[in-house]
């Protein structure tokens, strides 16, 4: 079974958005960020066929990214929110969520933020919460073979590939 791990697209600058006195969770994607993510997904479009579900952080920039992916995938893939994908959530919480919510799934995508998404990917591959050796740039996509979601076990997953926008877009 396959897990597509995606970092949200480029959002408004944190410092500029903070001047609006609005919660950072409401920071949206930029037009350029949306276009770059669209190009990434179109470059990988076969990968996103027959996706069971797209799981996103409740933060606006991740939700907007997930919606772009869903529309380009097939327009019918369900998008669900999970608090286990917020920036500082423990990676183990997302593993538990995937095991309980995606047990019978074959293809799942998760859309999140740094530092969580890189730490989660590293944890899945190594089982270590200490060493973070994967770096997910904005709009990057990683494919991880997890065996099956019911028995998802950190350190047993296998990285198939990791693609950054620099490779497919820039």
Query: CATH topology, what is it called?
Result: Rossmann fold
Q: State Rg.
A: 15 Å
Indicate the structural class: alpha/beta
User: Helical region count?
Assistant: 6
Strand content: 15-25%
Total strand segments: 6
Mean pLDDT: 94
Number of domains: 1
Low-confidence stretches: none
CATH architecture annotation name: 3-Layer(aba) Sandwich
Biggest sheet overview = 6 strands, mixed
Order of helices and strands: EHHEHEHEHEEH
Spatial sequence of strands, sheet with the most strands: 3-2-4-1-5-6
So what's the overall shape? globular
Distance between the termini: 30 Å
Q: CATH superfamily, called what?
A: Phosphoglycerate mutase-like
Q: Name the helicity range.
A: 25-40%
Report the CATH C-level class: Alpha Beta
């Amino acid at each position: 079974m396959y897990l597509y791990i995606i970092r949200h697209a480029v959002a408004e600058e944190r410092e500029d958005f903070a001047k609006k006195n609005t919660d950072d969770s409401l920071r949206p994607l930029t037009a350029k960020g949306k276009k770059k993510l669209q190009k990434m997904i179109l470059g990988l479009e076969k990968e996103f066929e027959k996706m069971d579900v797209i799981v996103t952080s409740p933060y606006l920039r991740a939700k907007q990214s997930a919606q772009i992916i869903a529309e380009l995938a097939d327009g019918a893939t369900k998008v669900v929110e999970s608090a286990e994908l917020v920036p500082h959530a423990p990676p183990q919480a997302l593993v538990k969520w995937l095991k309980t919510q995606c047990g019978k799934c074959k293809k799942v995508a998760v859309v999140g933020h740094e530092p969580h998404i890189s730490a989660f990917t590293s944890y899945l591959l190594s089982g270590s919460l200490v060493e973070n050796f994967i770096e997910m740039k904005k709009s990057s996509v990683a494919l991880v073979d997890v065996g099956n979601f019911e028995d998802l076990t950190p350190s047993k997953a296998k990285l198939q590939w990791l693609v950054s926008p620099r490779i497919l877009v820039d």
